Protein 1
Amino acid sequence: MDEVKSRVNLALATLAFGLSFAAWSLLSPLAPQFQRTLHLTDTQTGVLLAVPVLLGSLARIPMGLLADRYGGRKLFTGLLLFNMVPVFFMGTVSSYTMILFWGFWLGMAGSSFAIGIPFVSRWFAAGKQGTALGIYGMGNIGTALAAYAAPWLAGNFGWPYAFWAFVPIMAVAALLFWLLAEDAPGGTRAGSISQSLLVIKREKLSWTFSLFYFVTFGGFVAFSVFLPKLLVDWFSLEKTDAGLRTAGFVVLATAMRPLGGYLADRLGGARVLVMVFAVVPLLALVLAIEALGPSLWPVTVALLATAGLLGLGNGAVFKLVAQYFPRNTGVVTGVVGAAGGLGGFFPPMIMGLVRDHTGSYAIGLALLGAFAATCLALDYGVLMRRTATASESSASTTRPGDRRVADCRRTP
């Protein structure tokens, strides 16, 4: 396959995903301002932050199905054009109800992930998919762009321009994607929708990956969405300062994602996830304890370490999806991606409810540790066992130095 074209399409997909992710995240850095202006409770603010995540999560399932059938070029172009509508009208809202309404449709931008995974994976050989998908996942940097740009635009030009500034940018990106992007030649296309859904019903491993992504990507989204408010509540930071610190969290998690894919290519995704799910519960416990009397430096260290590990986990999970489901990458990506999005939907609401009723975020942070520990047990019980079985079965026909390659080619 043409290496230059592979890289060009990877770059275009990453750009389109990054802009979509920025649009998906625009509400978060402005939430403290909306809370003060509209006199919202913590629970109402949590709902406001969670609403875009809901549609962005659920829409990944049909987007994954459509990506398998029609390819990413048409879908990504159409989605970028659609995103312009809610982004524009978010700059005109004046009530909580209208923010919820347009914030819900803003969530469509989050479904972009399910388009790009099959689009990118079909341009690369199996041994390079983890790295390529990790690079594509760096489009998460759009969250950092929103966290930094939205408060600055709001402070200098008024909050509507925090949304309107992205409209022409997305128009240009849609045009570039339509003109320059290509679907991979001879790319696998799934059968009917019912056949695609049967894969999800039949292959229980897709649900295991869904739980893993619920924690890794869901944790990333939840922190990137809720962190500005949490930092303001804990340390009374200015919204611009909180936005910059959130951007740092996002940048680190995003930078670690391609490393997670690279390590998964070399060591196996299951082994990378063992490290992630073993350490995240400890960090979540630290944050839960700090919630009772937070200090800036311990919180900063714990958050940055969590960001790095969640980024590694995100890269490893989708190496496994492409490895185990090469013919139905889109539909499985849709379901796994939806689970990851829902992992970012519930925590903001739970955190708001917990703080309204207990005065602390400790219980909500402890739940992250409990979910990560559950994933560690599943990783050992399901994936590591599969890896060991595959290694044993290939030992009689494969030279020891080639076992890892054979394992990477194994599909369920």
Protein 2
Amino acid sequence: MNCREVSMLTLAGPGAPASRLRRTEAWLHRAMCRHCRRFWRQVRAVDRGVRAVLGRLEEEAPADLEDRIVQRVIHSKSSDR
């Protein structure tokens, strides 16, 4: 595998459809390539951060947030006409 292929597989995430052989090839490439290893760590850190923020939003969101968003979208569409 080359760096581009490993990067695309990394961005696709762990749930992406890839054979065991492809995942092993990517792992071996990262073991040898410091650039891909760094990129993989960065993607994982961003993923953890996004999940943490989303988790907090779900905990802190007001119960009527979805209704308020829908009303704003409807209101903005009617005022555009």
Protein 3
Amino acid sequence: MRYTLVAGLCALMPLFTISAQPASHEMRPTSTSTTARPTGKPVARVNGAVLTDRDLLREMFTIFPYARQHNGGFPKAMEANIRSGALKMIEFEELVYQEAERRKMTVPSAKMGRALVDFRKQFPTDQAFQEFLKTDLNGSLDVLRAKVERSLLIEQVLKTEVTDKSAISAAQLRQYYDKNPDRFKTPESLTFQTISILAPDKATPAQLKDVRKRAEDVLRQAMATKNYEEFGVLAEKISEDDYRVVMGDHKVVERAKLPPEVLAATGSMKDGQTSELIQIGQSFCVLRLNAHTAAGKQSFETVKKSLREELERSKTESLRSGLDKKLRVGAKIEEL
């Protein structure tokens, strides 16, 4: 679950926004189901408070914003899960809001004023803003104010119960690092490029002879290269494996995952050296070793930023889930 003030205020925006740019072919879902325009029909009641199909659809758009570009079209295979997740989220938000009311929380007038100004800035023109008020809020600024206040109160509860409690201290971070050494071990690895000459399936003796002849010619050319770029250009030109499109670069590969023929050939090589012909099956390759990294362990300084983000994200999700379960105890929730 997630909730931020930005998400809460954006949820007030018009339901159907058509993108000014056509979606790319690569991003287009193969099969979509167009959701009917909402009418205000109830979809759930939370302790008597009614949640409508407008609330639900806005949350579905938050989960899958791409659907806005298709006037409400969600991938058929995903729609049921998106709807279910959205329904649980709007129920959670309503429970959090009711908790804020129970605690008699209020929003400072200055904070409310800033939030209203920020919300208004999301509209390109005053006409667009007025149209939104008319179609979504019955033309009422009071209704808008109430919805913005609701978002701020939800944010306030979540800050107290989730955000503030999710922070990981420097001591906790270091403790986790020290107690989980295996997570930060790095295996021995090689970084290398290859140029390959491949034998055809069921190759004849004559074909195999030709493969070796071409491989020996490749070896001579590869030995003449002086650096990564020259070897890579040669790989792009003559290699027959899939890595030719990236200058023959295999990036970092764990030593344990390499075939024995490659291990034997690279055992005594130094960084920057080019191997002799390596035969694997009936095919050949030439390898340039770019780096040999011994097994080791990532330093605390190297991992602490990403580790803090990971641990705080995990703690946030755990706290939100726990808050959701706590608020649902004794609550009357009806899904219609």
